[in-house]
Write a structure and sequence with these properties.
The complex is a heterodimer. In chain A, a hairpin with a 4-residue loop joins β7 and β8. Helix content of chain A is 0%, strand content 56%. Chain A is built from no helices and eleven strands. In chain A, the strands form two sheets. In chain A, strands 2, 4, 5, 9, 10 and 11 form a six-stranded mixed β-sheet that branches. In chain A, strands 1-3-8-7-6 form a five-stranded antiparallel β-sheet, with no helix packed on it. By secondary structure, chain A is mostly beta strands. Chain B is mainly beta. Chain B has no helices and eleven strands. Classes of the chains: A mainly beta, B mainly beta. Chain A binds chain B through residues 1, 31-32, 34, 38, 41-46, 49, 51, 87, 89, 92-101, and chain B through 31, 33, 41-45, 48, 50, 55-56, 58, 89, 91, 95, 97-98, 100-109, 111.
Chain lengths: 108, 115
Amino acid sequence: RKEVEQDPGPFNVPEGATVAFNCTYSNSASQSFFWYRQDCRKEPKLLMSVYSSGNEDGRFTAQLNRASQYISLLIRDSKLSDSATFDCGGGGADGLTFGKGTHLIIQP
Amino acid sequence: EPEVTQTPSHQVTQMGQEVILRCVPISNHLYFYWYRQILGQKVEFLVSFYNNEISEKSEIFDDQFSVERPDGSNFTLKIRSTKLEDSAMYFCASLKDSRVNEKLFFGSGTQLSVL
């Protein structure tokens, strides 16, 4: 099972700022990619799917670059409630492989 | 919204004891998974299950682990003889089908503490 790499952070960001994370994956056969949000000691909750054409949902934009094997997440106008760990995951029906998660702290 | 449910939410056991963690996946889902997360570490894949058999397992899923779908609704993870290092949060997950970008849904987890 191949790896997914993320910068664990923490990213300390002032409220209202824009923040971006990247994640790289080594399994070129992976078909599906996602960003999950995980609050302390809770289950991962799906934030958004990631497509090559880009995917935007409100303040969140995700992008997949298959040639370079990385996925990105951009958060605009960050809120205090965005403080969490963001896990990227890639794979298929046999299961997703996750990175270590990027810890984001939004400061007032 | 349909949910993956897991019981118990917390399980404390003595080293060497057997534990069974229980999950009820979303009812029309076909693929089922167990993941674990040791405190402070990443979510790690353990096993995937489809059509009543294991489709893939990780190196963590050794002979001490087994999974079962005994009655068409429950999906269980058994650890035969627990070790201290089995202490972790165990998440069950399910997937509706194998289409690309089909979303994986997680249960709220069982925190296993091995003493």
